[in-house]
């Protein structure tokens, strides 16, 4: 009697592993094999020892090594498997959902091994077959037909599931609020987030196999890097970040943008090139140019600012021309680089911090100076509150972050009679003040961006998949 409810499989079938981001894969069905196997390479475990995860990559289409699907799953076992040629191999075992089409799916265990030289990227063994599955070894492709076209650039993102990512945070301060928020936000989503001290990294620089080492060991591959590079180690930190970029790791902010934003003179030149409003600024190297330098900016009061200043340090308000000359002479005596800026009186000791993620202002706060201090930095006792910004301020902040190609930025601006004026673009903005002021989960929004950015995008090709 023929069982019409049975799931019939031929010796070769179109199947899917949707939880791994593999909606289509050709599999060999072999009842002679006990264990199922999936083609995988760059296999690497990560995460806590009590519940380890494994990440790996798959070329789902034979002969198309330009199409790589990154995957991750929880390890359920590691066991010795003997292949058909008699060779024994220790393999990681994962559990995932098998999609047989027509609404039929069930969980199976799969071992990970390199099947790059085989025509079938997957072997379906008898342990993976349910009781209602009938294998007809003389037939093939009894299940609904599928196509590799699902891996085209237009369709791949729609079928890619969320997966556990391995993320590095470059920071020398693992216990500060911003670093802890990033770590916690990632772990809440099932990702593994590791804090790496930038200054303890060292690099092997060569054309064939560039590497990054840390505490005597080669660093593993990361899906993404969140740079929180301190101002005092900008040069070395950006060198480490460039190494990650060379390895093809997604970096939330690039080394070029961080370098340019940290150099205040360079940063103002970048803003000026993009026609972005900012206080009138002047810079000179020679002491003979002091009067002319102040004349370019305007009348007192003036702001004299060290190029390396952070958190309001090294920023001086000169109420009179004579006071400005004294400050400039003092900075020159210290052989310090500085610039002179017009003081925006109407700002009245307030500025706006716009938090930009992936080209959008996701939060904004108004910072007020403490007492008679003209600087509104929270580190100097200033206070903060959520604020509604104007469309022009929003556009200006987004344009400023884009000028440095920063996906994550804190853009500081003043409200002047001539419209918003950019003070600074911070490539490592703090989370604490603005999250408390706005009650928004900004670290979570950063991970929304990371998850969207590390999805696989295959290379375009004229050849049909």
From TrEMBL:
InterPro entries listed in its UniProt record: Asp_endopeptidase, ATP-grasp, ATP-grasp_RimK-type, ATP_grasp_subdomain_1, Peptidase_aspartic_dom_sf, Rimk_N, Rp_bS6_RimK/Lys_biosynth_LsyX
One annotated GO biological process: SOS response
UniProt cross-references to PROSITE patterns, sorted A to Z: ATP_GRASP (PS50975)
Cellular compartments per GO CC: cytoplasm
Superkingdom field: Bacteria
Record GO terms (molecular function): ATP binding; metal ion binding; ribosomal S6-glutamic acid ligase activity
Keywords of this entry: ATP-binding, Ligase, Magnesium, Manganese, Metal-binding, Nucleotide-binding, Protein biosynthesis
Domain ATP-grasp: 268-451
Family: In the C-terminal section; belongs to the RimK family.
NCBIfam families with a match to the protein in the record: PRK10446.1, rimK_fam
Protein name: Probable alpha-L-glutamate ligase
Organism: Pseudooctadecabacter jejudonensis
Gene this protein is translated from: rimK
């Amino acid at each position: 009697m023929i069982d019409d409810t049975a799931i019939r499989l031929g010796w070769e079938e179109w199947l899917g592993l949707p939880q791994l981001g593999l909606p289509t894969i050709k599999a060999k069905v072999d009842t002679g094999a006990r264990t199922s196997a999936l083609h995988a390479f760059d296999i690497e475990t990560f995460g806590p020892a009590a519940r380890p995860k494994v990440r790996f990559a798959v070329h789902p289409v034979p002969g198309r090594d330009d199409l790589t699907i990154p995957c991750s799953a929880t390890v359920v076992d590691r066991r010795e498997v003997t292949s058909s040629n008699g060779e024994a191999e220790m393999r990681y075992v994962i559990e995932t959902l098998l999609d047989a089409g027509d609404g039929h799916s069930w969980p199976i265990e799969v071992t990970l091994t390199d099947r790059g030289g085989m025509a079938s990227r997957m072997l379906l063994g008898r342990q993976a077959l349910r009781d209602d599955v009938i294998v007809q070894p003389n037939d093939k492709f009894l299940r609904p037909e599928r196509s590799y076209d699902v891996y085209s650039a237009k369709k791949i993102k729609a079928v890619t599931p969320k997966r556990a990512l391995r993320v590095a945070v470059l920071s020398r301060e693992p216990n500060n609020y911003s670093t802890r928020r990033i770590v916690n936000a990632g772990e809440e989503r099932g990702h593994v987030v590791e804090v790496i001290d930038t200054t303890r990294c060292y690099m092997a620089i060569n054309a064939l196999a560039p590497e990054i080492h840390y505490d005597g060991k080669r660093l593993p591959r990361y899906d993404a890097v969140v740079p929180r590079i301190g101002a005092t180690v900008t040069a070395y930190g950006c060198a480490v970040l460039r190494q990650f970029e060379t390895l093809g790791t997604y970096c939330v902010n690039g080394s070029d943008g961080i370098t340019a934003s940290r150099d205040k003179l360079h940063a103002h030149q970048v803003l000026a090139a993009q026609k972005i409003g900012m206080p009138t600024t002047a810079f000179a190297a020679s002491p003979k140019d002091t009067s002319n330098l102040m004349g370019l900016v305007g009348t007192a009061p003036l702001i004299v600012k060290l190029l390396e200043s952070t958190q309001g340090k090294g920023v001086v308000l000169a109420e009179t021309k004579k006071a400005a000359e004294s400050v400039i002479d003092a900075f020159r005596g210290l052989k310090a680089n500085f610039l002179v800026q017009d003081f925006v009186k109407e700002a009245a000791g307030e500025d706006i911090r716009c938090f930009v993620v992936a080209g959008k202002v996701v939060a904004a706060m108004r910072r007020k100076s403490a007492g008679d201090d003209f600087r509104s930095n929270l580190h100097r006792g200033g206070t903060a509150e959520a604020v509604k910004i104007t469309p022009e301020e929003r556009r200006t902040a987004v344009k400023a972050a884009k000028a440095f190609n920063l996906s994550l930025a804190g853009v500081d601006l003043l409200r002047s009679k001539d419209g918003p004026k950019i003070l600074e673009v911070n490539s490592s903005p703090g989370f604490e003040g603005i999250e408390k002021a706005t009650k928004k989960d900004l670290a979570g929004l950063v991970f929304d961006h990371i998850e969207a950015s590390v999805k696989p995008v295959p290379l375009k090709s004229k050849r049909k998949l």
